User: Fold these one by one.
Assistant:
Number 1:
Amino acid sequence: MQPHWLIVGCGDTGSRVARNVLDSGGQVLALVRSSASRDQLRQQSIPAHAIDLDEQGPPAGRFTHVLYAAPPPREGDDDPRLARCLTAVTAVDRFIYISTTGVYGDCNGEWVNEERRPAPQTGRAGRRVAAETRVQGSGLPWNILRAPGIYGPGRIPIERLRDGAPVLSDAQSPWTNRIHVADLAQAVLAVAARAPADRVYNVSDGQPTPMAAQYRELAALLGEAPPPEISWAEAQERWSEMRLSFLRDSRRVSSDRLRQDTGWSPEFSTLRDGLKDCLRQAAVR
């Protein structure tokens, strides 16, 4: 039986998975929120429907794999969108949920693997933990992929850099982690093909840096001036509470379990290589 994937929240990561499945002879049904997103996917020959997960669950069908990449609501303590999907999906070979390393909370810069207990410190991270708990209790074979900051073509801060936006100084910056969207998509496929069920995986390139490193590396590649740096006290005066909340968590994320279980390794294992790919694809377009 050829694989038949349901991809809920088919954005950049999901569309990359979809194209790989279709190119390999499988089937895909992508679900997105807006008709504009649906039409963009259809232009790529990806079958897609637009539905509002706040009002309805996915259509019935026999799927071998579900990739759930839709975010929770912005308020509340749970994820009713995911709950509707799990109610509708009664049989599947693997249910893969894209979560976030934000569930670990602040780890004081320590290295973090999947054995560390979640300790969410924001409402959005708490909703992710609630969603993970739903997946784990669904009775379906599952995997949870915890991703840090996702970057890729069209997802790097070129305009902020050129506008002279400041960054937090290294001395006061937390450790930050990232994954190129192409590597995240390949991790999904590797987990679907080779990972044992009912396991959590971190998906990071394994090269944590201070926050400003991405901006400095990007500036060097573009021949631009590096960004100005500010202190934490200045950041508190200038930045929103939402942005500051991301800077209160410091951790270094290990993906050793994913590498060992599936043989996956990131194509873009350094920030410089990943940014060069983003700029190359932007130039091609």
Number 2:
Amino acid sequence: MDSRRNSVFALLNRFTELGGNFIDTADVYSAWKEGNQGGESETIIGNWVSSKGNRDQVVIATKVALLETRKGLSAANIALACEDSLRRLKTDYIDIYYAHTDDLEAPLEETLDAFNKLVTSGKVRYIAASNYTFDRLGEALAISEANSFAKYIALQNRYSLVAREPYESDGTKSVQTYGVSGLPYSTLGSGFLSGKYQPGVQVSSARAEGVSNNYANDENFALLKRLTEVADKHEVSTTAVSLEWLRNQPGVTVPIASGRTIEQLDALMQSVTLSSEELTFIAG
């Protein structure tokens, strides 16, 4: 754990050195790893913030609903999960608290009332939705309006150059209609858009099988070739170009991305400006 903590500390230090200040996590990260139970990411972030004494300099977003031991969006679960996250993050407030996924079994009014109590108590500053459809987000916002509850301020759904739907229809419509911020996740196609996946190349990664099954096809390799051409022209990474393409799409406020190494972090933090012709060329 010490080596893992130190490597994450190094990443977070580098991130802030490069001007970053928005950290996105969830209580379920990373329960999927053998030996983990969830909350590990929050714990490391909390230890880092505590060691740096920089809580007021970073924005921390975390989520509730998907951790097996704190599953769903019932009022009781939200209250308990929030206390767990606050303890692990070593903070007395969460900047943005997400419903990690919609919960069709919990009444929306109950969910939103629970979130509202966290906001009014000062434990949460803002609430947001992840993996919500246009209709369900609209229903949630209407309930908040009718009851004077805190409202979801953002939508975090999947979106990338290799996974453009349903975000470009449903997600963009949500952002534009309801006036919430669009913060898409999985913006690099699980690493496919980094360029390391090439035809016939074996990649050593926990995500490699999933990436190969979902994205490794002729159409996407042609897209990657166009990305590489534009990236080479600007002398930046394909990662940077992919993220800049997203920033220029309707319904996107800030694309969320992650890196496991300093090299990956540096690549995704590169700055590039793309012309309208280049944006069109990349999309194909």
Number 3:
Amino acid sequence: MQFTVTINQVKALEWGLNSQQALLFAFVYGCPSWTKPIKTDDGIFFALSKAKIIEELPLLTDKPDTAYRMLKALEEAGLIELSSTANITLFRLTEKAIEWNQKLDGSEKYPTPPKNEGRKKIRSTSEKNPIKVGKKSEQGSEKSPTNQVTNHQGTNQDTSQDSQGSPDKPARNLVLVVDRTDAPRVEIPADMPGPKDQSCKTFKVWANYAMAYRKRYSTWPVWNAKVGGQLGQLVDRLGADVAHHVAAHFLKTSDAAVLRKCHSLNELLANAESYHTQWVTGQRINGTTARQMERTEANVSAAEQAAQMVLAKRQAGERNEYL
């Protein structure tokens, strides 16, 4: 797992990348320094499996399909070219992508070291000179520096651009270190109504409900004070860890009564625990399935009653034989 990923915020904003796409590209940018080059009919590409992305960037996604869709987004942004073999994804950087690691004057700020150069340096100090291992850290240095990366040396690039500062106003630091675990897995559209602060109690449940609602009805649900209060109650009843899952699952319900009300939050809140059970079990119960379950239960009950009557008659007959 890569411990630290640095993002050039200036270029990410200029190219229209969201936080997830910027995180992935920051990783992809350094891959040619260690990943395997593959010669194809269209030239040299580099191997990068979806499984490797998941392994190195657990904050980004845990689904191979999502990782591939994000690579396609980078290709659409003109930053990479994609190809593939029978069993692995291939990529290469475009001319545009090179600007990610350049100073304002166009020169490369932190050149990528040759492949395996970092490993050779490690061996030279650990194997040939073992006496240096375990030496006490110098005063003022960190024993466990926070800027740790994977064993792929050179993968972690400082991708900030220099900003011009004045003597009384220092230059701004344009590097963002991504270490959040609560970043959304999809880009939130700018026109989505409701809360924008992701630390808000109702943001996550509202975002899931609203996105699922727009997918089903091709329009945003109404946001107002009543809706905010209802979502707060939903979080209180189901818990912040699952309320957003239940809200999204609710939009898959095809019960006629729910459809007539266009999946109103009134219905979700009134039967929150029921929809929680449906989400946990993966079921979507509507009028038809409820009647089927009712008939099945009635048939089972009738069969049990018939079996009890047969058993009672048999026991009565056995008693008469001994009288």
